[in-house]
Amino acid sequence: MANIASARKRARQSEKRRQHNASLRSEFRSAVRNTRKAIEAGDKKAALTVFRQASGTIDSIDHKNIIHKNAAARQKSRLAARIKAMA
């Protein structure tokens, strides 16, 4: 454990940020999972609605640098392609 006051404070801040980032990452994964479930259910209209919500979540997490911008774009692109491929 850190001995200097500033190092102790930095450790507290890092832990708080880590927990916050973990919750945002979990929110991102849930959004992607919910979209995939909607796609597998076969209802294109419902899948599109869920995708729009997920897209906003993915964008907000991208802007906060929780995940890389290209990773966010790739996730959105793949989900959009799967929705487009639905009959």
Keywords:
Methane Monooxygenase Hydroxylase, Chain G, domain 1; mainly alpha; 87 residues
Domain count, please report it. Answer: 1
Strand portion, in percent?
A: under 5%
Gyration radius, rounded: 17 Å
Mean pLDDT across the residues is 96
Q: How does the overall form come out from the CA principal axes? A: elongated
> Kindly, what is the distance between the CA atoms of the first and last residues, rounded to a whole number of angstroms?
58 Å
Low-confidence stretches: none
Total number of helices: 3
> Per CATH, what is the topology?
Methane Monooxygenase Hydroxylase, Chain G, domain 1
Oligomeric state, counting identical vs distinct chains: single chain
User: Helix/strand-derived class?
Assistant: mainly alpha
DSSP strand count: 0
The CATH class label is: Mainly Alpha
CATH homology superfamily: Ribosomal protein S20
The CATH architecture is Up-down Bundle
Q: How can the largest sheet be summarized?
A: none
Range of helix content:
over 70%
* N-to-C order of helices and strands: HHH
